[in-house]
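Re: weekly structure request thread

Next one in the queue (306 aa):
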Amino acid sequence: MAWMADHLPQYNIHGERLWAVRPTVTLWTDASNIGWGGKLSNLVAPEAAGSWSVEQQRLHINELELWAVLFSLRTFCLLLRGEQVELQIDSQVAYHYCRDYRGGRVPQLSRIVCKIFMCALSAGIEIVNYEWLPTHENVDADRLSRVVDSGDWMIRPDVFLAVQECLGPFTCDLFAASHNHVLQRFVSRYAQDGAESVDAFQRQSWKVNRHGQSEHLWICVPFGLISRVLRRLDVEGAVATIVVPEWHQPWWPRLLRMERVKMLLPLGHQSFIPTHSGYCEPLKFPRSRFWAVTVVGSAMVPALAN
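Done, posted below.
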């Protein structure tokens, strides 16, 4: 009996409980034609979001709703380990496919449902209840699924390798996503599967990692954030290689003071590509020159670093 009590739950994932279990956390998920979103009832937990690839954007919305569930579980798997989860979905089809366990008549949807249950099982997550809710009540997950990321572009992999050979090695991709990071360690805007942490500006240190080892960050950000990024690097005395346009903006003098070495990048499409959003900020300026610049901050007192 003791063995059954310890092992039965992991073999009985499709069974029904004899008594109701009160969930310890609620997970809301949603999908749009732009991306997916997930939100936990635990206010300490970050929000999760991501955008669809070009191929995924062609899928039916019912498939996308189930992928949103799977991606949310993968993203929050460490936070949800050992928890009893209530899953709330605003798609009737996704709700019934998940609740029925065995899926349904559409093979593509049934395969995703199988992935959902295997993900939960392997991560030690117990989904104890499913609820459908109207779309207008699924506010946070719906908002997250519609986020358009203006920074959803990247340097071409071959160009990045050339830059890393010349200016690297780099340790962490500080502004990235699960679909466009160029280094194994990366920080994403929202919680995403594989991200080391969320929101680079909330990170405690840019100078060293969590083990106290020095960082040489790789930074490729929307141009409107360059001034803020340089100031943070300067204040902390951090080391980074940042991609910048050759523009004489207010941040340009600080960049020149912090510069140690730089590399001129090929123009336009030879250096940059859009990713999921289809948007690529550098391509809006085909005549601009772009540089990868290694900068070192001076660890200035914040009041003097303005």
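Residues 37 and 141 are 5 Å apart (CA to CA). DSSP finds nine helices and 14 strands in the chain.
Next request, please.
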